[in-house]
Write a structure and sequence with these properties.
Rossmann fold, seven-stranded mixed sheet, binds S-adenosylmethionine
């Protein structure tokens, strides 16, 4: 099994609600009813704001029917998304996360959500999506795999479809921490020894964080005809990130205000 998948399976089995947020208030699988409610309500508020941003900056008529949530985890965003859309497809590398997401859908009586561990398991004739979404996921993929995933996600979008992909592009870690991080990722057993140094069990898997080169991302978006772009910055502990909002719409293909030849 590939390392990333193995690590996320373990996170999903041991403490899924904590690992999808890394918020200590969710650190314990037996969440009380109130904490569970808070978990989904905060995602609901997030989606309200997200839709508002899209309607203000990209598409005033935004009201997606078919949505795709990449790296859906336990369904934190997938579930409130399913209340707003006719159909939602959630993909996550970890079966253990998907099992919890399915349980949550059942508890909330939702039958318009499907899950898979792979993007490519969609049949080619499947109806395209009008919204693709991913938050706190691409940062955990190596850049090459992440960029490939971005192209796959854009390919799932209909013409005029909208995307919001979050990723990180800069870490504020000290050089010493960056070196330790690199050794943890690339040198066998180093992560375990580092865990012990920090007083944690040897077996806690590596929580990978990767910086994306924004120039390469912008090229992908351009090549895939996502010319309509809006960016919001994020800062999460020591990581700078961006939320890239885009519409698959070529410049000159409709309601763009052309700048003509820029003087
Ligand atoms: C920090 S969690 C975020 C989950 C969810 N997006 C949320 O905000 O609640 C990252 C999720 O990405 C999933 N993931 C990691 N690598 C992945 C990959 N290569 N393909 C699909 N999902 C992946 C993990 O299993 C995990 O559920």
């Amino acid at each position: 099994m590939e390392t990333g998948k193995r690590n996320w399976e373990k996170f999903g089995k041991e403490d899924p609600y904590y690992w999808v947020t890394t918020d200590s208030k969710y650190k314990d699988c037996d969440l009380t009813e109130d904490v569970r409610k808070d978990f989904f309500e905060s995602a609901d508020k997030y989606l309200d704001s997200l839709f508002q941003v899209i309607r203000t900056h990209l598409d005033p008529t935004f009201s997606p029917q078919r949505a795709f949530d990449f790296g859906c985890g336990v369904g934190r965003i997938t579930i409130p998304l399913a209340r707003r859309c006719r159909y939602v497809f959630g993909v996550d590398v970890a079966e253990s996360m998907i099992a919890e997401a399915r349980k949550n859908c059942k508890e909330q009586s939702l039958d318009n959500v499907q899950f898979s561990t792979q993007i490519k398991s969609l049949s080619p004739d499947v109806e395209a999506f009008d919204f693709v979404h991913s938050i706190y996921v691409l940062q955990h993929l190596r850049v090459k795999q992440g960029l490939h995933t971005v192209t796959q996600l854009i390919d799932l979008l209909k013409e005029n479809g909208t995307g919001m992909l979050h990723l990180t592009y800069h870490s504020h870690k000290t050089m010493k921490k960056k070196i330790i991080y690199w050794l943890c990722v690339h040198v066998p057993l180093f992560n375990g020894l580092n865990n012990i140094r920090k007083g944690k069990p040897f077996s806690v898997p590596m929580y990978e964080m990767n910086d994306y080169p924004l120039n390469r991302l912008f090229r992908v978006l351009r090549q895939k005809q996502c010319d309509h772009l809006y960016v919001r910055y994020t800062r999460d502990s020591s990581y700078d990130g961006v939320m890239l909002f885009f519409q698959k719409k070529r410049a000159g293909s409709g309601d763009f205000i052309s700048l003509g030849d820029v003087p």
